[in-house]
Design goal:
It contains 24 helices and 5 strands. The chain is globular. It has a 5-stranded mixed β-sheet with strand order 2-1-3-5-4, covered by helices on one side. It is mostly helical.
Length: 625
């Protein structure tokens, strides 16, 4: 008993979980100060520096304890869960009371439509495909009803649970492959460095839920589809009775998880089914027909393909045209780049604001570190090929595709696609690089730990900068023109609230990018977009004078109201467009839209100004139809 008490005491002395929790709290406090400074309009450069400092205060101690080999397993696992939650908390602290990002408002509109109609699949012109994939909104609505919360708090609860589930699933997958909890935690640490982890995958968006569900599906497949006793060498026949009924029984939970992905996000579901299919092929190639996972994986692939295809062809699902538009845009950007021979302007937003030089250097250095680390990591990963571990080989191959992420930044359209892919590719990169670091690096002495800590922290910083967007987008601050979260203020929120209070729901409204998001998510109106209605009505908003073509477009789009934000003419749009891609005079714009475009309806007979708060004017244009 005395020996046990001494051992327990030593473990308690060496456990630093409470200290890590304290430093994490300090980091969150610093980030809250940075957010407050931004709201007060303090120096953007100083606010941004404080923002990155806060993130490093959260990340560095957690990374140190994860890398340090003598760290107790229980503490390492606790830190592995604590760090992702702290990083998510940094996003909540920036805007704790409302949705502000583009995709958040689009999904908030789907949630509002479900609440209003008490039915799924109501049209959402802000993001038409989201209406057919309401898994996130279903979870939010249920959480809100169960806990009695508002929309924003309920969404936070859902995303917190999703992040915990994803972290545990990632740990479980790597632990099942490597039989090492330490390697699993290092892999999870590497995963937190992916460019979208802090930003896009922390938003209230369907990928933020579908990605954890997809990894949960992989975890269930890894742990349930082949009991250890059936892990047979290549060419060995299965015992009688293994094939068939047992496989179907073991498939129940993976199929349920996969079905949840199917109703939550289109592309994640397609990639997941493709991944499982490749896994089955690798099982066949590496282990032969005697692989105990082969039949269950093949069945899961077929069932998944049927579910995905069935959901895609469901009446009203617009995902095919949505994905076609993205593919065409990417191809057009790449083709235009190849034809013109001109490179994209890097490290600058649509208004010409440059990324600070130190951030550029940190980003480039992190790219170099990751690319260089792939070489020894791939050499180390050959052991899984020799062991014929199909899932490990598949994940390593995904990690080896990391160069696609920076390569995709040659154009704006392809950069969005490859940045979204980082959430998937970093699962493999975590296993690949994390496995190499845990096995080959000696982290028992402080010099090696400090070197590893500097390297990992630089990768975290640089990759986060890659996914962060322009400097103004990271923290709150004064109003900026067409800058998504930085364009939402009291003026346009008040206008949207007026729409909700004074207009019947579902009126057809034309507004700029931010105005239409607020008109839908808050105002409860139908925002006319080219994406949903296939009508380019940008001339009505951006044309300098009222012309017969404006009236023709008003009739064609059946517009009821036009919302003008007079501030649009004060600057170039920070994200590159006022309304939508392909808008009037949008390509190569060097001067702001004419101010006359934003006031022209004041002098048009038949148009009636029904709201004006000085910045935002709303016109009833039904008389022009």
């Amino acid at each position: 008993m005395a020996v046990a008490r001494v051992a327990s005491s030593r473990r308690a002395v060496h456990d630093r979980t409470h200290q890590i929790a304290l430093t994490t709290s300090v980091g969150l406090l610093l980030l809250a100060v940075a957010a407050a400074r931004g709201r007060h309009g303090d120096s953007q450069t100083q606010t941004d520096a404080l923002y990155w400092l806060a993130l490093l205060v959260i990340f560095v101690p957690a990374a140190a304890r994860t890398l340090w080999r003598p760290t107790p397993t229980r503490e390492r696992l606790a830190v592995a869960v604590m760090l992702p939650l702290a990083l998510y908390a940094t996003r909540v602290l920036l805007y704790p009371t409302r949705f502000v990002f583009h995709d958040e408002l689009a999904h908030a509109n789907t949630l509002r439509a479900i609440d209003l109609t008490h039915h799924l699949f109501a049209a959402n012109p802000l993001l038409p495909a989201s209406a057919s994939y309401p898994g996130l909104e279903i979870a939010t609505s249920g959480t809100r009803s169960l806990l009695g919360l508002g929309d924003r708090p309920a969404a936070v609860v859902v995303l917190v649970l999703a992040r915990v589930a994803m972290t545990l699933a990632l740990l479980g997958v790597v632990r099942a492959i490597t039989s090492s909890s330490r390697t699993a935690c290092v892999a999870a640490l590497v995963y937190t460095c992916n460019p979208q982890y802090l930003f896009f995958n922390s938003q209230y968006s369907y990928q933020s839920l579908s990605l954890p569900l997809a990894l949960l599906t992989i975890y269930l497949a890894v742990t349930r589809l082949a009991p250890a006793s059936l892990d047979l060498p290549r060419g060995t026949a299965e015992p009688a009775g293994v094939r068939g009924r047992p496989a179907l029984r073991l498939l129940a939970l993976p199929v349920l998880a996969l079905a949840a992905v199917v109703v939550t996000h289109h592309l994640t579901a397609m990639l997941l089914v493709g991944t499982i299919g490749l896994w089955a092929l690798l099982e066949l190639a590496l282990r032969g027909r005697g692989s105990p996972r082969l039949v269950p994986l093949a069945l899961l692939t077929v069932l998944g393909a049927v579910l995905v295809a069935g959901w895609v062809v469901r009446p009203g699902n617009t995902v095919v045209s949505y994905l076609s538009t993205i593919a065409e845009s990417s191809a057009s950007d790449v083709g235009g780049l190849a034809k013109s021979g001109q490179s994209r302007t890097y490290f600058a937003d649509g208004g010409g604001v440059k990324t600070p030089q130190w951030e550029q250097l940190a980003l480039v250095l992190s790219l170099g570190i990751v690319l260089l680390s792939l070489v020894p990591a791939l050499l180390h990963g050959r052991r899984w090929l020799r062991a014929r571990d199909a899932v490990a080989v598949l994940l390593c191959a995904a990690g080896a595709l990391y160069p696609l992420i920076p390569a995709g930044h040659v154009t704006a359209a392809t950069s969005e696609v490859t940045d979204r892919a980082s959430g998937f590719l970093f699962v493999g990169l975590g296993l690949l690089v994390g496995g190499w670091m845990a096995s080959r690096w000696s982290f028992t002495r402080w010099p090696s730990v400090l070197l590893g800590l500097v390297v990992v922290s630089e990768v975290f910083l640089g990759q986060s900068i890659l996914g962060a967007g322009p400097i103004w987008s990271r923290t709150p601050g004064p109003y900026l023109v067409s800058a998504d979260s930085r364009s939402i203020d009291g003026a346009n929120v008040s206008a949207a609230e007026w729409e909700a209070a004074q207009l019947p729901p579902g009126q057809r409204v034309l507004a700029d990018r931010v105005g239409r998001l607020l008109a839908g998510a808050i105002g409860g109106q139908y925002s006319v977009t080219h994406l949903a209605d296939h009508i380019d009505a940008s001339q009505v908003l951006l044309g300098a004078t009222y012309t017969p073509r404006d009236r023709q477009l008003i009739r064609l789009a059946r517009l009821d109201y036009v919302v003008d934000d007079r501030r649009d003419c004060t600057d170039l749009p920070r994200i590159g467009v006022y309304y939508e891609s392909g808008e009037l005079d949008g390509r190569g714009r060097t001067t702001p839209v004419a101010c006359s475009a934003l006031t022209k309806f004041s002098a048009v007979p038949g148009a009636q100004r029904v709201y004006d708060n000085g910045a935002i004017a709303i016109y009833d244009v039904r008389g022009l139809r």
